[in-house]
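User: Assemble these into one structure.

Assistant: Restating your components, then the assembled model:
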Amino acid sequence: MNPPPVRQARSALSLWGERAIELLIRLCGISAVIFVFSIFLFVFLEGAPLIPDLNWIPVIFSPEWYPTSRSNVRYGVGAMIIGTLSVTGLAMLFAVPFGLGAAVFVSEFCGGKLKETLKVAIEMLAAIPSIVWGFIGLSVMNHLIQTWLPAPVGLNLFNAALLLALMSVPIIVSIGEDALKAVPDSYREAALALGATRWQTVYRVLLPAARNGLLAAVLLGVGRAIGETMAVLMATGHAVNIPTSLFDPIRTLTATIAAELGETAVGSPHYRMLFLIGLMLFSITFVVNLLADLAVRGVRRQ
Amino acid sequence: MNPPTFTATPHVLRKLRRERVAALALSGMVLAMVLPLFAILAYLFVKGAPLINWAFLVTNPTDGMRAGGIWSALVGTVYLVVIALLVAAPIGVLCAVYLNEYARESWLTRLINLAVVNLAGVPSIVHALFGLGAFVLFAGLGRSILAASLTLAIMTLPVIIASTKEALNAVPVSFREACWNVGASRWQTIWRVVLPNSISGILTGVILQVSRTAGETAPIMFTGAVFFKKVADGALFPYALTDQCMALSMHLYTVTTQVNNAPEALPYAIAVVLLGAVLLVNATAIIVRSYLRSRKKW
Amino acid sequence: MVSPAPKIAVENLRLSYGHKEVLHGIAFTVAPREILGVIGPAQSGKTSLLRCINRTVEFTPGAVMTGTVRVDGEDVMRVPDVYALRRKIGMVAPLPVGLPLTIYDNVAFAPRCAGVTDPAELDARVERCLRQAALWEEVKDRLDTLGTKLSGGQQQRLTIARALSHDPEILCLDEFSIAIDPVTTMRIEDVLKELRAHVTILLVTNLTQQARRLADRTMFLWNGNIVEIGPTEEVFSDHPKDRRTFEYVNGIFG
């Protein structure tokens, strides 16, 4: 009474097609590994020939960056490392409390329409391109700082730090909010049932419970700030200088590459040195992201 | 007379006061971020708006970029973004399919996940170095649209992977089990059930990447974008893939830092166009997402 | 009497998820066109057993299966085409799963995956399966609405129709009545009685009385071990071989 079973109807062709697709998917799967590895490899290979010629102690600690000097070429990136660290540190001083505070507010203190609106606003904040931030720093923020703060004429560390803070806040908010969302509602209910206010719940229950996720949020924010290029290129003043005050101009590792790569001859020592700086940046952000990933994994294990 | 049912002790009053202070302080923090932002954006718009009109969009820069419009940069950005996403979207989606549907708990899976996380964290200027070393020099593409787009593609890849994974994850496991039970293979399950039901999430993720890619400057500076390139006004396909091109983000950088005595409103106008395009695309993605969420199929 | 070759033969089947063993070396056979009822408390390995038979257990990370399960004498771990094996077995899960496709596509899904493209054949198949699952009359005018929009009971019948759509020789039902009302349950039980003419049925159920009504033989599974397997009348009699069976069937424990 039944029509013939459908079991063997698939053609060999479609089975082979399926194998081919699975192979393609596997290939795409490992492509991420290939790309990360080849980024390292290519940056390393372009920079490597210079390595034997460098004396590492002065390169890392000296502030003397004279890559085009005729008589005495010096590649000291000390000032840029300090520049990068100071601008990132200062940015985090603003971004971490504000970002985590906003994450807590969005996640715990508001709901419904307000929450959706704020999330969209923060998404918009994240969408502003870094070049536009740089332009804002150069044209708007600089003007404000000159007018309202006792700063000497010119771009400075403070300006760039504000920009970086605004740029890394969206990451901190969204990852931080995810971390808070991951805390089971039963924790909240238990705390509220015991008569805790929302703030006590946040302070005593949620922040400790979401610790790792919040740490990851901060680390990813740091990674973003260290790697940022165009905004700091336009808004730091771009002077190789160890800053002594908030309003000193500085220069970062990223900005140096962006500013000078276009003017170097392919294969020249200066060109290779810029790739080595890139290698440094790659390593720094690699470690920061690794730490963030470990922190997130800690969350999942709980 | 009944005793009052509840009396606030000083401790409770303090507690409630703290709650109010905390809520106020936190909302203040949010406002402190959001309000200046809107003020700045409004300022940019007010300064830039007078210059923006149709002719500004469809004519080319003239007089050493001090006059004319931005057509060649606008169309260059479209070229870069479209090609970058045409490359990145399929690879990224398939990579996410692998991670979410095929991969088992193994060292390889851990390695891939780690690579995705780190790829997302690589600074844009390092991508630029890679693009220069790998595509421009090693692959011999030269400074070209192709080289710049490929650099951008690799940059957007991890975010596409992450958003696609999330979209795939939202499809319940029970659907997959039902398919396997009736003898569907993994790929049939993915193609006929999982992908159709996550396509909205995947698309939203890709659209959001359009805006991010359009704003990037560093990765294209040394791989294919140039300060100036002459094309015909309003020409729709003025570039070949092997050409260098102008791009909006690069154009803003050039006009701001390299061109002397450009009209004051010009960089503002470019910034507004770039920002407007980016926010428009983003808003589209957000609207699409909320629309699709509202008509979920289960 | 010469007993026919068993449809399903399970030997020394062990299954563990990670370090936890859930089936401790069980063995039984199912004859062709027999209804075998499987009863037992929750967590006793009933669902895992079904997943071993159609080998979907391999989709669970960390699952390790040893021993053999033979369907028509073929070791399921060694079949050349596992998809054909799964199409030989219809599987109905405890909770109804309407795929987010139209009702028609839900039922046509399996044949299409198997390579059937002829529209006339698909139409006929869809109608026959929906009729068999006692759903045709209710949905025949809206075959293009989403399967997920049906009620729970209708979805479960849709699931059964889908499980029949690839002409299975074996039908595995896993607590199919958990999510549906008693009337629908009775209608599906009637369907099963008709199907027994040409299909072997493995009926996992939490309702012992359902096994009593339908099964030729009944197996009592407890904590990953078979306590007792035998003719249904015997298992449900006052003197089954094992006292625990009596206690379970009569609701004294479990």
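DSSP finds eleven helices and two strands in chain B.
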